[in-house]
């Protein structure tokens, strides 16, 4: 069970999460927590002040972080645990001060030191949530995330070492579960075998939960957030979007690549490999949350009633049109382009082929240099900025139904492209371009035409 910062923003939210865990004690939960709301940002501001040598600003931010955690901890811990809370905060903030001293001495923030600083958010939240569970009469055990998540040394975007992590988890966490206790582990943060703290990067706590759940053979991985599952479209573009009850791993991955905020593609990979389903639920309405969730994983498609699952949008994309040099056939560059797509995902999105070119969508100009380095040199490249890429996603597109035909008809006039998986784990998708000014109308038209009438 993974809970993000918004679910742990203050004492009332923490008490609600304690109730969510209590209701599922019979399923032997392992709890993964993010830093409390906005604390990662505050820790980065603290490290920036240290790098600038601004001791006054640093002292103010440090006091704010300490006061916040002490206040929340005091509100959720039992009176008997308050001395332990103070001692714990003293220990962690002494360690934080030592890292800040290194930053001040260096006069700069390095990726290694940045990871060391932001890790305290997850360490503090997992300690405090453990005390909150104990105060509610739930036996719980804090587990230092750095002791169980082993990674390489790519700071700010470390990759997990799966066999080593699994061995550490089984040795540390299984005995806790066997004693009937709830392990509480911070997400996002790991450690190299040299003992250096690392972080997994964006959506790292979801990633950690998937790693842990897959390694331990969990029944499912629950991602508790502030939305009730995944919707059939971005509600900001189409307010009548519906909850999607089920997705296959391939459909979830394609949605992530195509612009959906949830799930993150990194989260899906360990779960898919371990064959452990992921469920997206809301901590704001926990009663009956499973019935109002989205389940991603095994056996989620229904061949008897083919349908699209969701519409995803990638805003402000760039169209990359790749031509072979001279009169060379596309066959000569196709393998190298496919390899570049795999290396650059999710920045690159395949759009298919048209008029002697291979078309790709690039999510940001910031990634252009890296993508150009990955592409073969024997090409001519056109770059057309400012396009909105709309993707309709369903594994049923290849199920022999009329789904693709209906989608092509609904998207006629916008050069729709049917993109089939080719050497990847993604699902089929129908993609088209739209101008920014018409994106709301395009999504609404496709949703009404292909998903049926509007729902309240």
In short:
The chain has 456 residues and is α/β, with parallel strands linked by helices. It has helices at 11-22, 39-52, 55-76, 82-106, 111-135, 145-148, 162-178, 204-215, 249-258, 265-274, 334-344, 368-374, 403-410, 439-451, and strands spanning 2-3, 31-33, 140-143, 182-186, 189-191, 197-199, 221-225, 246-247, 278-282, 294-296, 310-324, 348-354, 357-362, 379-393, 417-419, 429-434. α3 (55-76) packs antiparallel against α4 (82-106) and α8 (204-215) runs parallel beside α10 (265-274).
Characterize the main sheet: 8 strands, mixed
Q: Level of helix content? A: 40-55%
**Class per helix and strand makeup:** alpha/beta
Q: What is the CATH first-level class name of the largest domain?
A: Alpha Beta
- Our count of domains comes out at 2
Report mean pLDDT, rounded to a whole number: 90
Instruction: Give the strand order of the largest sheet, numbering strands 1, 2, ... along the chain.
Output: 3-4-2-1-7-9-10-8
Identify the CATH architecture of the largest domain: 3-Layer(aba) Sandwich
Unreliable stretches: none
Radius of gyration: 24 Å
Tertiary shape: globular
Would you identify the CATH H-level superfamily of the largest domain?
Answer: Acetylglutamate kinase-like
H/E series: EHEHHHHEHHEEEHEEHHEEEHEEHEHEEH
CATH structural fold name of the largest domain? Carbamate kinase
């Amino acid at each position: 069970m993974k809970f993000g910062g918004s679910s742990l923003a203050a004492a009332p939210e923490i008490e609600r999460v304690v109730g969510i865990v209590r209701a599922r004690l019979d399923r032997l939960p392992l709890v993964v927590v993010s830093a409390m709301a906005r604390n990662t940002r505050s820790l980065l501001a603290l490290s920036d002040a240290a790098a600038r040598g601004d001791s006054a600003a640093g002292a103010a931010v440090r006091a704010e972080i300490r006061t916040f955690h002490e206040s929340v901890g005091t509100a959720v811990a039992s009176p008997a645990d308050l001395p332990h809370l103070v001692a714990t905060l003293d220990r962690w903030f002494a360690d934080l001060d030592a890292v800040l001293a290194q930053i001040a001495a260096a006069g700069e923030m390095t990726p290694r030191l940045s990871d060391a600083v932001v890790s305290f958010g997850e360490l503090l939240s997992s300690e405090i949530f453990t005390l909150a569970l104990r105060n509610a009469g739930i036996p719980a055990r804090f587990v230092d995330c750095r002791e169980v998540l082993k990674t390489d040394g790519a700071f700010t975007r470390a990759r997990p070492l799966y066999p080593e992590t699994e061995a550490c988890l089984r040795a540390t966490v299984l005995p806790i579960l066997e004693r009937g206790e709830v392990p509480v582990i911070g997400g996002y943060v790991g450690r190299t075998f040299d003992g250096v703290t690392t972080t997994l990067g964006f959506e790292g706590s979801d990633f950690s939960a998937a790693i842990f759940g897959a390694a331990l053979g969990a029944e499912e991985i629950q991602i508790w957030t502030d939305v009730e599952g995944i919707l059939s479209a971005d509600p900001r573009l189409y307010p009548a979007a519906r909850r999607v009850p089920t997705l296959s791993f391939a459909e979830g991955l394609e949605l992530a690549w195509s612009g959906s905020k949830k799930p993150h593609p990194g989260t899906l990979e360990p779960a898919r490999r371990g064959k452990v389903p992921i469920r997206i639920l809301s901590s704001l309405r926990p009663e009956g949350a499973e019935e109002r969730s989205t389940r991603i994983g095994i056996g989620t498609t229904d061949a008897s009633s083919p349908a699209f699952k969701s519409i995803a949008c990638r805003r402000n994309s760039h169209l990359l049109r790749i031509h072979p040099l001279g009169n060379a056939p596309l066959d000569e560059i196709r393998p190298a382009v496919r390899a570049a797509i795999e290396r650059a995902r999710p920045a690159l999105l395949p759009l298919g082929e048209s008029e002697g070119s291979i078309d790709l969508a690039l999510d940001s100009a910031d990634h252009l240099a890296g993508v150009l380095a990955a592409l073969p040199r024997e090409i001519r490249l056109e770059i057309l900025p400012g396009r909105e890429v709309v993707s309709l996603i369903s594994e049923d597109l290849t199920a022999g139904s009329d789904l693709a035909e209906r989608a092509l008809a609904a998207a006629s006039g916008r050069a729709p492209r049917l993109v089939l998986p080719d050497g990847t784990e993604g699902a089929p998708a129908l993609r088209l371009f739209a101008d920014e000014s018409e994106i709301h109308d395009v999504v609404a038209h496709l949703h009404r035409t292909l998903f049926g009438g509007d729902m309240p």
